[in-house]
Each structure stands twice: as structure tokens, then as C-alpha cells.
Amino acid sequence: MRILLINPNSNRDFTAAMDRSVSPLRAPGACRIDCVSLEGTPLGIETQRDIDSVIDPLCRLVEQESDRTDAFVIGCFADTGLYSAREVTTKPVLGICEAGLATALNLGERFGVVSTDAATLNADLRLARGYGLLERCVGFEPINMPVAEIATSDTARERMVSAGRRLKEKGAEAIVFGCAGMTPYRAMLRETLGLPAVDPCISAVAMAIGIVALAQG
Amino acid sequence: MRILLINPNSNRDFTAAMDRSVSPLRAPGACRIDCVSLEGTPLGIETQRDIDSVIDPLCRLVEQESDRTDAFVIGCFADTGLYSAREVTTKPVLGICEAGLATALNLGERFGVVSTDAATLNADLRLARGYGLLERCVGFEPINMPVAEIATSDTARERMVSAGRRLKEKGAEAIVFGCAGMTPYRAMLRETLGLPAVDPCISAVAMAIGIVALAQG
Amino acid sequence: MRILLINPNSNRDFTAAMDRSVSPLRAPGACRIDCVSLEGTPLGIETQRDIDSVIDPLCRLVEQESDRTDAFVIGCFADTGLYSAREVTTKPVLGICEAGLATALNLGERFGVVSTDAATLNADLRLARGYGLLERCVGFEPINMPVAEIATSDTARERMVSAGRRLKEKGAEAIVFGCAGMTPYRAMLRETLGLPAVDPCISAVAMAIGIVALAQG
Amino acid sequence: MRILLINPNSNRDFTAAMDRSVSPLRAPGACRIDCVSLEGTPLGIETQRDIDSVIDPLCRLVEQESDRTDAFVIGCFADTGLYSAREVTTKPVLGICEAGLATALNLGERFGVVSTDAATLNADLRLARGYGLLERCVGFEPINMPVAEIATSDTARERMVSAGRRLKEKGAEAIVFGCAGMTPYRAMLRETLGLPAVDPCISAVAMAIGIVALAQG
Amino acid sequence: MRILLINPNSNRDFTAAMDRSVSPLRAPGACRIDCVSLEGTPLGIETQRDIDSVIDPLCRLVEQESDRTDAFVIGCFADTGLYSAREVTTKPVLGICEAGLATALNLGERFGVVSTDAATLNADLRLARGYGLLERCVGFEPINMPVAEIATSDTARERMVSAGRRLKEKGAEAIVFGCAGMTPYRAMLRETLGLPAVDPCISAVAMAIGIVALAQG
Amino acid sequence: MRILLINPNSNRDFTAAMDRSVSPLRAPGACRIDCVSLEGTPLGIETQRDIDSVIDPLCRLVEQESDRTDAFVIGCFADTGLYSAREVTTKPVLGICEAGLATALNLGERFGVVSTDAATLNADLRLARGYGLLERCVGFEPINMPVAEIATSDTARERMVSAGRRLKEKGAEAIVFGCAGMTPYRAMLRETLGLPAVDPCISAVAMAIGIVALAQG
User: Fold this and answer.
1) According to the UniProt entry, where is the signal peptide (chains A, B, C, D, E, F) (predicted)?
2) What CATH number is given for B98-199 in this structure?
3) With an 8 Å Cβ cutoff, are F129 and B135 in contact?
4) Is the ipTM of this complex over 0.90?
5) What percent of chain A has pLDDT over 70?
6) Which residues of E touch F103 (CB under 8 A)?
7) What is the DSSP pairing of strand E93-95 with strand E71-74?
């Protein structure tokens, strides 16, 4: 059994962080979880143009890996190429936004999302509305910082805490990371706010494992 | 690491079937998954009185197992005692209805639910509405059969296919089992209808594994 | 004709206040309205465990009084045991939350709810969402005070006004009391804010009288 | 104490039926309930033009009766003039549609409405959506018959049963009468279908009694 | 081809401003656009009574102009008489509120509305909810000023900017004018806020032109 | 002034039909309306892969035409590339799905959509939900026919009437064409069903003209 978690940007540090974040889901004899970057794509998916530009290479990868993969996870909070990828494989394909929000519902009455900036916030909102997953969402709060700097910026930590606090004040009982690049801050945010911090890569891979299990036996 | 999947009825055949159904999620070195029945509870949770009557023994079990358990899953589609159980442990507690519906979103545009009968259908509907998870649901179709007979009845198979077909005609791209007792029909329904059949016990346990991972590292 | 208003906690001062609050609905020759406490239940329904723990004694009372009662009203804003109670009697059973919110719609464009604390606020929200009654609700504001102290606390009055003002600023044209124990503050809040204050016990009993009338003639 | 139930059409038989229907709410010493027709208005409110044409005489009556009335009920399912009437009196004004639908929520999981024809069906739908009261509504079924003939037509009975059955098949647990003129069929429909039949005049007057009580003491 | 834009108040300066505002839609050989005032109606539509009082003269005008008009636009944000007017003509009738909000959706993720005061704000909210057009609305902000003074008041400009800014802070990407009398501030608001300002008269007339085109060929 | 209506497929007959359909909006001295095909794109946009594959050429065209264009309309019911296109120009960009559905609201109480097949139906549904435009939609009915054959197929006419009738039976008062290629059937469907048939290219171009007007003066 193998899950393939695809980072649609070409930033290998990003992919390595993603790979580390899902390691608690690995076990000997359990489903294998591989993380890969796309090649030739932007270092951070910032704009809608970025989002749309990676769909083709993503689909080509999915098609090529389909035979030796049991489920795919698209590791970008825009769930880029989700419906196209489903056309090129018969295996389940999940997006981390949909899986992350769906998981957050199970952690409390309402959740909130930390977004990267105002533009992604609007895109996230549109996506979440399309998923029918806004009803228990208290809102989206941006940290206003380029995706590629989140993991290394001096101020990211502070901005994430501040965004998380605003969401908590609005009633959030779980905080969803609105970008795969926020993964290094999971423990920090969880401990500072006293709330579960949902790294959507973890949630999506776990859900994918469950979906693969549904197709067995 | 240990997940405890609790069957709130006292039917041990039921628990054994549940235990088998989640076995694809087990692996050496991975999260341990235990299934238990409650004692002294009904053989099938049919009525709201049944639902409410098992909350106290359920909570007592959760409290007692809390120290040696990383997450709890309540294996009844009514998600009986979900909020009470969360008060007696600091560990995550999931209900199979909420987790199953949330997972189904990731399998297609819309899903449908096979319910046991008209009374549970109304209770399911109320629950799903409270979860904010009706927007992509095509409906609930009952098989009109007592919970305790589902696994062994001669006509259950045919009734499940018929309910599943009605949901597919309404546009469902995934079928959620609205009772933990339907688990034996997963492969059959999936193959007959050509749609994913969501055994919510599997989905909830996989999600619980992911949620436990969120709290690590 | 007889309506039975049941206070699910065992606090007799509470029941007496409830009894006084519904007295404007009494008249010679009109429907008789009796208020009773449950026995052996908590002095205040604070937690979900409390809510769930009173369902069994509540249902036993409903069953026992069914023959000589025309409608039941559950006097706890959690509408505890509503669906179980409906299984043990053929008579109408109302919850004060559902009836109170439904009444508030008729008093203006939007309403708000004064909750007891953050935990009940989340439970109220879940209940109201399940009822499909959130669309014209501006929000829930907590007074952060134990149920059993509301009627007698020195600061309750001030906290209720403050919560009510926040709701009014958000656009509420009616304020719903999110706890049967707030009944002594109805005139005060109405006069201070210049808005209708909905004591949901009154609203639910009046609605029950109307529902009994539907079944006559 | 006095409630004034206003029939906005000028059909006195209609008003007399309405008057009889609310009689179970009358009692010596209780709130007085008066029913009046408007003068010079249509015999049945069929069209939107009819609806709008009665607002002015309705408001003039409300203004004139305001001092000696504690609450007004507008006895037309279009809730004609509701917001205008609220501007000419400080007393509560209720519409039978809003109060009837709000009451129906308390009678089961979902309700349905018997409408007069396709045009009123669309108007009802718009009204109910504006009220935020569609979430638990299974639909509206028309009897396709002029308002003024409903009470006396030979086929009305049969058409009402047929519309009610369709609503019941869709899951309705209560049937709301979408016209004040359907009041004579309450017992018949309730008994034939085995479901509560909501005469919205009764529900609205009962709710008005409760609202008057809120303003006392 | 002719569109008739009807100002339901009797303020001719108002009508003249409306007429100027739609002039960018005029062209030789294109659809003719005429603006008229009603006679004998209030100088500003402020209250629900005002709204309801103009329906009859509005309908009489529509009926009379029907033969020589291809579509009607009601130039009042309350969409007064929309459904009555549709009964007296077979030609399309649009309201500027519905058309303006529907257009605003096409300008960004979410929009906000500048209302005249708290009473109209509640009426707008009810209308927009009835239209099913609230889901992407960040809110309504009042300028608290009589309709008849908006065009000429010294403080209107500043109040409109302030209301617009509050909406922008809430995430609005387009600002809808909640009163036909705000038309003189379109360029100013657009330039000050850097957001599209939707004069709903323009939007509705353009939409009416498109609807007339649908019926051709 | 110039509106550019872009057909994202490379089928020139398709573009010519689109061009003819918007001709009622043309007039001397009025806004110029040009229609163009993309080059090298599929003959019909059938799949999500098709939808995503045309975004890049679409954006390049928009960027290149931006200086001499006042608004863009994307002539594909999937609104392909809408948000990417908005990033490469400061001019308004509209999608025919969003504009068509928004227009349909103004034509009656509820509308329905004729889709091409089950896959596009699901994509349409997701899009409409994301737009917040499902509340007054009775449903989507497919004609099950490839996009490229719609205009010329012998059976398309009959299938469109049949889909339209099903929508009318569900309560639709306007029928929206869910594909730019259905434009030849506008008059036929309107006359056969007696309902407005919304060619979304016309509606979107008219709305674009209005939006251009908002930015003038």
C-alpha cells in the first residue's frame, strides 16, 4: 500500500518539511507514504495563476504513478487540480483543504483557518463555500506573508499566534493551517493557544489511509 | 498509541464484525486499535431512548480507559454521548457519523446515506444538519429493518442495494453506511453500485489516527 | 386541559420562579399549567453530562403523567431529552430552546441569545443549527456564571445587561434568555434595552397551549 | 387583555370560520380574542395585487385599534402588511405564516405546507426563505383552487388529503395550512394522515398570547 | 426597444440624477432608456408604509406603459411592488436591489451594502435573504440619514466613505449603493476606496437590456 | 468601449453562433462586442482537464487584449480561468455561469439549468454552490450529449425540451443554458416551454456592459 503526497511547488525544503510532518503516520508494515515535489513549478503557490499552472504537471505525475499508488494527496491548500487529477486515475485523490476542514469539524464546535494573505483568504473562502464547509467556520485570518518565507521568517511565529488568537476569540476550537508551509509551527501553536492545530497534510494522509482501507476486503 | 473503538450496544457479534472491518488499518508498530462492547446495553441501538441510555456506561468506560488510550471512537451512527464523553477525557473523541460524513465529502461531489428506518432517518438528518454536513448530501434512504438483524437477515443485502441505487440516482457518488451493523456489506455494495461504500467505523478510526498524529511532535 | 412544565434540575427555587413566570398565561377555565422539579437531578444543568443524566428521570415522569397531561414542556434550554420524551408519550413535547427561538423570529428581523457560559454557548449553537434556526440569529453572548447562581448573584443583572447590549449592537431586535434561570430578569432587561426579552418558558407554554388547541375540534 | 385577529379579506363567512377555529384558546378571564374582517377588500386574497391592496386598510385598522389591543395577528398566509403594521403600533404584530411555520418546527423533524396554487406557492416559498424557515420544510404542495371556494368546494377535501399525503411521503411530520380558509379541514386532515395539522391562525394567536405575557410582570 | 426606469418617489431631482446615472448605457440605435417619477408619492421612500403606499400607482403606470415598453426597472432599493408589477404586465420587471446584488457577485468574492438607516438595513437584509443573496455579503452599513437629504447633505460624502471603509475592512470587494439616491457618489466612492461602486440603477438597466435581448431572435 | 467575449474552445462554428447570439446587444455608437476563439484548445470543453488546459492560453489572450478592452467575458459555463484572468488585467472579467445564474434570479422565483452530462452537472453544481447561487435553483438536468454535437445533433432539440420540462415541473420559472453551445435553441425552448431561456453569453455581455458603465462618469 502506498500513499503519494504531492507538493505541487518545486521547493524541496518545503517537501522535506511535509515529509517530516506526516512521519507519525508511518509504521513498519503499514501504508507507505511518499512525498514528492513537482519539477519546474513555482517555489511557492501564491497566485491563482500559480495554482492553475501546476495542474498539468500534477496530472502527468498522477497518471504516471497511478499503477503503483493507492491514493494521492495534493499538498496545497488550494486543492489545485483536484478534479482534473481524478480524471486521470481511478485511485482516490484528496486535497488537503477539503480533508483538513472536514477533519477540523471532528475537533470541536467551530474551527478557524490561518491564511497566508488576503488573496488566498478569498480563494480559501470560495473553496470552502464550494465544499459546503463554512457553516462551522468562524473565519479566516491572514498572516500576510509570502508562502516561501513562512517556514524561515522571524515574524511568522508571532503572526501565526496572533492570527490563531483572533480565531480563538471568535470561538474556534481548532485551528486549521491554510498552507502546507505552516507545518513547522504545529506544536508551537497548539501549545500556545491550547487548541488543536490541524496540519492538513497529516489529516489528508490519514483520511486517505482510511479511504484505501474502504476499498479493501 | 492506542485507539479505542467502542460499540455502545452489547452485541458481541456486532463488535467482532466492527473489529474485523477496521483490520486493514492495523499494522505492526502502528497505532493499536481495540474494539469493545458496552455491557448491559441493548443488543441494537434502535430508539432515542436506547441512544440516551448508553451515554452513562459509555462515559464511565471512556473515563476509565482515558489514561491508556490516545483517542476514542464511538461506534454508533447516532454519535451517542459524543459531547458528554468529551467532558470526561482530554483525549480526542470522535463519532462515526460525523467522521463518516466528513470523509464522504472527499470521495465525490455528493453522498447519500443508507439509514435503518424512518425514525433513525429523522435522527440522522437532525444530526447531520447540526454538523452542518447536509449541503452535499442527496438524502437518506431507509432499509426498514431492525439493527440487530441487519448482519444476518436474508433480505438486508437486497434492501441495501435498493437504497444505494436510489441514492445513486439522486446523484450520490459515495454511499455512507448509516449503521455500524452494515459493515459486512461494504464490498458487496461497492461492487454492485460501482461507488465507494463508506463504513464509517473505518473512516472514523483513520481520522482518529490522524488526529492523534496532530498532537505528536 | 393541562400543560406540564418540567424543570429537569432539582432546584425548587428555580421551579418556583419558573412557575411564577408563566402565571400570566393562567386563567380560570383556561388550560392548567403545572410546574414540577425532577428529583435527584443536579441543582443546575451545567454540563453535557448533566444534560444527559436527567433524560431517564425526565422520561419516566413524562410516561407517568402522560394520561393526565395534554402537552409537556421541558424547561431547560438544552431541550434535554426532547426526542426520548417524544417516544414515551403520544402527547406533544416541546423544548424551551426550540420554542423560544421560534417565537423570537416573530418579534423582529434578528434575535440574539444570552448564554450562561462558553460551554453552553457552543451547545446552544449546535442545537440552534440542528433546528435550522440560526439564519436570523446575531449571536450568543455568555454571562459566564453558574446556572445555580444566576437568580441570586449580585453581578448577574449587570452581566445580563452587558450581554444584551452586545447583542443589540449586532442588530438583535429581541433577546432570548438562554437559561430558564434567567426568568427574574425579564422586565429589567426589556426596560433597560428597550427590546422584547423572551423568557422561553413562557413562549414554550404558550406555544404548547396552541398545539393542544390544534388537536381539538 | 385582547388579541385582534384580522382577516384581511372581506369575506365574513371566512372570518366566522376563523373565529370558530381559535375558540379553543378562549377562556373566562383569559385573553380576549376578537376576529374582524376588513371592509372593501377582495373576497379572497389570491394575487400579489390583492396582497398589496389590503395593506393600507389593514394599517388603518391596526392604528385605530392599537390603544385597546395587546397584540395583532394578520390572518392571511401572505403575512400581508406585517412590516407596515409594525410601524403604526407599538404592540406586537404577528403574521400567521411566520408563526405557523415557526410552530410547525416544534412538532417534528420536518414539515410541509399545503398551498392554494402555483402562484401562492411561489410567494409562500419566497416568504419562508426570507424568514429563514425553509431548512426543515419538505416542500409546498398546491391544491389549485381559488381561496374563496376552499371552504365550500366538493373537491377541496380530497385535494387537501392528496397534497398532505405527498408531503407526508416526502417526510413531513406536520402539515401547515397555507391559507386561513383551510381551517375547516383541520380535524379531517389530522385524522386521515395521522399527522398534526397546523391551522396557523390558532398557532399565531397562541404565540401572540405568549408574547403579550412576555411584556407583563 | 425601450426600458422604463421608474423612480417610485415623486422627487424630480432624484429622477434626474437617476436619469444621468444610466446615460452611459445609452447609444444611438440602442435600447431607449426613459426615467420617470411617480406622482403623488413621498419625496423619499423611508418607511415600509412608504414602500407599500407606492405599489398601486407603480402598477398603474406599469400597466399603462406595458404596450410600449420592453422591460421595467423599479428604481427603489426596496424593490417595491416587484411581484405586483409582474402581474400587470407580461414584460420583464426588475428591482434594483435584486439586480444590483446579483451583479455585485460578479465583481469579487464578497460585497457589502451601504444602507440609509437601521430600519432600511433590516428591510434590506430581509429582502436579500429572501433573494438567497446573503451568502457572499459581508454586511450592511447605514449612513443614518434621510433619503431625501443624501444627494445634497454636507456630511453624506463622509458618511458614505466611512460606511464603505467598514465594509472593505470586513472583506467587501464591491460596494453596493442601498439607495437610488446615492448615485452622485459613485465616482467618489470608487476612487476613495479603490473598489467598484455598484449603482444598482445602472446594473438593473443593463441586466434588463440583456433580458430583453433574450426574448429576441 | 469594447467587450471581448472569449470562446475558450477552438471551434469556430461555436464562436460564430455565440457572436450571432449577442448581436441584439449591438448598436451603432454602443459598446463594441467582439467574439474570439482560442487557438489550439479542444473543440469542446468536456472534461475538467479541458477546463484547466485552456486557462493559460485564455490568460495570455486577456493580458494581450487588456489595453484595448473594457471588460472580458469567458464564454464557457465552467467559468474556466475566471480568477486567473482577473490577475492579469485590471479590467472586469465575468464568467457566463455566474452572470447567467445571477440574471436568472431576476426572472422568477426559481430557475433550473440544462447541463450537458453528469460530469458537467457535478462541476456546475460545485461552481454554483461556490457562488452561493443554489438557493433558488430547482436543479440541473443533463442532455447527455457531447458539447461539440449539441448545435448540430438531431436529438438535441428533443433532449433540451425534455430537460427543460423536468425543470419546469420542479418549479423553474426560467431555464439557464448550461453550455455556450446551446445558444441556437433559445427561441425554440422559450416558445415550447413558455419560460424565459437564459443564454448566459447574452446575460454576461449585458452585465459586462453595465459594469463598464459603473466605472464611467
Assistant:
1) none
2) 3.40.50.12500
3) yes
4) yes
5) 100
6) 102, 207, 210-211
7) parallel
